[in-house]
């Protein structure tokens, strides 16, 4: 693949939740919605505020518009206790963010949005090599890596409160029948060539400047990401565009947590949902799916309208 062109990446990411990995029906109210796990724990996290411990897990500020910049949570399981210290990822969403859907006739519908900024990076207190990537849009949802093993936390599927109290915690190794990852390109890792890295439009004020080399430590480089979700996922999420958007933003948040260690930041500029049908062939043939999506990206994504670097298909 020509790395001088926009990078096209197909991901079935290993750091999604179990419901994403095994493709369970996220709207399911079955008797055992966690049958796809070998083991899990039901917990009730506590939000720490100074010396106080709060059952109210919401990170929304008093005006209900913004989210706390540096919340902390205590999570206790029979196996171990976590205290996670978080920092709001303020640069994740572009000020130019758009959402693209399709009507019943297959016509593209585009609108500018200001999604809730409730996405965090963090650490387990006392473990420098740890990494935490969660969102708090509705409860706590995401990944906790303790340096040795990946743990997931998500609201219990039967807790319908606006801010759920009951959560499920499990290890990545507890997930049954994990599929292999799918990535666009010929190598097993995602590559980001320095030619696609630049300052986001809202940061550079249209000022032209040379792009630093990839290994430069002098300045931060940015990848502006266009995320696409296929039709099967749209159906699996019961046509819930908000839930699909939240998932796409959280995946971008996870990518950003990885690349920021290399002084590269991910900025999400758009979420497109194939809400009427797949706009490119999606099949079990990984190479064919990659080729079809890359062709769609080159010929159908609104590059002339929306400036971006990287197009990604989420399944």
UniProtKB/TrEMBL annotation:
Name by which UniProt lists this protein: Disintegrin and metalloproteinase domain-containing protein 23-like
GO molecular-function terms, A-Z: metalloendopeptidase activity
Keywords: Disulfide bond, Signal
Signal peptide residue numbers: 1-18
Database matches in Pfam families: Pep_M12B_propep (PF01562), Reprolysin (PF01421)
SUPFAM superfamilies to which the protein is assigned, alphabetical: Metalloproteases ('zincins'), catalytic domain
PROSITE patterns: ADAM_MEPRO
A biological process from GO: proteolysis
InterPro entries to which the protein is assigned, alphabetical: MetalloPept_cat_dom_sf, Peptidase_M12B, Peptidase_M12B_N
Keyword Isomerase: no
Keyword Flavoprotein assigned: no
Superkingdom of source: Eukaryota
Species the sequence originates in: Lingula anatina
Peptidase M12B domain: residues covered: 221-315
């Amino acid at each position: 693949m020509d790395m001088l062109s926009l990078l096209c990446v197909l991901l079935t990411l290993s750091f999604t939740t179990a419901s994403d990995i095994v493709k369970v029906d996220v709207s399911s109210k079955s008797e055992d919605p966690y049958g796809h796990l070998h083991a899990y724990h039901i917990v009730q996290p506590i939000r720490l505020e100074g010396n106080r411990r709060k059952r109210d897990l919401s990170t929304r500020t008093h005006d209900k518009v913004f989210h706390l910049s540096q919340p902390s949570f205590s999570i206790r399981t029979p196996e171990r206790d976590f205290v996670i210290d978080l920092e709001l990822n303020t640069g994740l969403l572009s000020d130019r963010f758009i959402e693209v859907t399709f009507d019943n006739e297959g016509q593209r519908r585009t609108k500018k949005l200001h999604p809730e900024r409730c996405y965090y990076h963090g650490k387990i207190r006392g473990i420098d090599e740890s990494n935490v990537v969660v969102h708090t849009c509705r409860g706590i949802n995401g990944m906790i890596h303790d340096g040795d093993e990946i743990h997931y936390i998500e609201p219990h599927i039967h807790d319908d409160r606006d801010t759920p109290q009951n959560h499920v915690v499990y290890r990545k190794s507890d997930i049954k029948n994990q599929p292999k990852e799918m990535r666009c390109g010929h190598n097993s890792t995602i590559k980001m060539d320095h030619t696609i890295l630049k300052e986001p439009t809202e940061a550079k004020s249209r000022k032209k400047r040379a792009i630093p080399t990839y290994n430069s430590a002098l300045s931060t480089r940015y990848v502006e990401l266009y995320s696409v979700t296929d039709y099967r996922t749209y159906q699996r999420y019961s046509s819930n565009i908000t839930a699909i958007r939240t998932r796409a933003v959280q995946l971008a948040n996870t990518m950003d947590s990885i690349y920021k260690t290399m002084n590269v930041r991910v900025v999400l500029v758009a979420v497109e949902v194939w809400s009427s049908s797949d706009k490119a062939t999606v099949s079990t043939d990984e190479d064919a799916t990659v080729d079809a999506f890359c062709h769609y990206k080159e010929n159908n994504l609104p590059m002339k309208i929306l400036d971006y670097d990287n197009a990604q298909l989420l399944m």
